[in-house]
Amino acid sequence: MRGKFITLEGMDGAGKSTHIPDIIKLIESKGVEVISTREPGGTVLGEQLRALLLNEAMHPETETLLMFAARREHIANVIEPALARGAWVLSDRFTDATYAYQSGGRGVSAEKVISLEAWVQGNLQPDLTLLFDVPVEVSVARLASARTPDKFERESAEFFTLIRNAYLDRANKHPNRFRVVNSNQALSDVKIEVKNIISTL
Ligand code: TYD
Fold this sequence. Notes:
Layout: E1 5-10, H1 20-28, E2 34-38, H2 44-55, H3 60-84, E3 88-92, H4 95-105, H5 110-121, E4 128-133, H6 136-144, H7 157-173, E5 178-182, H8 187-199
Helix pairs in contact: 1-8, 2-3, 3-5, 4-7, 6-7
The structure holds thymidine-5'-diphosphate.
Pfam families: Thymidylate_kin
Enzyme class: transferase
EC number: 2.7.4.9
């Protein structure tokens, strides 16, 4: 049986990465193999593209194309083979991030993202997307006290407002796939929400 494809999304500082070890354990407790991966990245070439994407200034469409180039490699070499052998795939970000950051944040037309998505993914879509949502002030405050910021993390509160709105818009457009997790509560409560969602799979 084909595995399930789960993606994690949210603004920088929304806290999604904190939950990855727990989600892996919850899936493993069902007795299935799970692989944990990330975008941009997930392959040797993809990680090289990530280093460029997170550090170099570039045209927004170049950024979009490189995101999808990394994604093509990731799907072909990691995601599809795993799903085909029945493993579950947990990806820290996927295409919703391109809609949020490159289209919502940078203004690349949604039509261009839609056509690249169709080209690179065919029919592949996540079975479940957890959107970790926090108010922009919270994410900006968390980032200010975090490690050295990358190119995206140095962006303004206005940029993050665009990102958050674009993500919430994606969730509204795809209610069957998305679960919005309120990350602006005690970590223990966020963990309970996540556990409840994963247990329904
Ligand atoms: P992130 O997932 O936050 O990793 P870390 O927790 O290690 O900082 O960083 C990835 C960055 O890449 C994030 O700022 C969002 C950005 N990104 C896009 O702009 N578009 C995309 O399609 C993807 C996958 C990520």
